[in-house]
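Hi all, long-time lurker, first post. I run a small reading group and we've been trying to get comfortable going from sequence to structure in the token notation. Rather than ask abstract questions, I figured I'd post a concrete chain and ask someone more experienced to write out its structure so we can walk through it together at our next meeting. Sequence below, copied exactly:
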Amino acid sequence: MLSAPTLLIGSSVAGTIPKGPIKSPAKFMLGSELSSKNIKKLDSMILNEIENDTNYDRNIYLISSKADDRYLGQIHPFLGHFHKYFNFNFIESRSVLVRRHQDVTSHNAPLILSILGCLCYNLPPIFKNSIIHEDRLCKVMNITKEPVLRVNKIIFDNKGFFYVEGVFFLRGVPCAYYHDLKYVLKLKSPTKNYEILLAKDNKPQISKIYYEGTFVNYDKAYFCTNKYKGLDMSHIDTGFYQLYIEINMLTGEICELPLRVDVTINSSNSNNKYTESIFTEEGKIFYSKVSI
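-- Answer (accepted) --
Happy to help. Here is the structure in token form:
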């Protein structure tokens, strides 16, 4: 069973096929000079084993995708090496949810487990050359603009910095680029309000987790603090505040929602002057700052 394999090991760690940064174990595997001789030696190890193998009665399943940046250099040129085997199966996954090398295996995990289950019962399935067709980018999406909000983290650390992270997007409105949206954390009390600009991060798994029949790119729909370093709340006056978050899309949509969670939260921090707390009431999240 091979899923998104690397056949040219030397070229892969050296960052030559595909072009990219040198991998951390490269010098250990190839020598400090990354000599071409050692690269070729490592590259030939798997292919030589296949070429010299005379037992053709094998069940081999190779799962790949053209969306994998390793496909053209690491897989496609060597498919012919496998065709001598009586049950060689090449399975190409074509899905809008498979966009990177690391997506191939996770996306096809149910298929991989099914094949392994059949093999455990000595029932090797036969696919030969198969293409898994799934939805297409040209499908018309249903743009409801329904807000989707999930808070993943909201705490104080032991140094008094405040952290808030989560997912927030409008259903059907893409946010593939950082400039597509802006997040604002809002603290509201009867007497004073504050607005704090939040950062964003690239989380391609969001597009997959929230996929509903048509692909929409929500990769940048993750709010967090700048470089995950937390927020300094020393400028906030004492008081009790309810927390809200606003999403402001480049396309003009603006949506503000109260931050909510389904679990009880009680996180606090104290110094010589103040005690700060994050707590929940009926799922809503509040921040308090009280003088000592």
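A couple of things your group might point at:
The longest helix spans residues 36-52.
DSSP finds seven helices and 14 strands in the chain.
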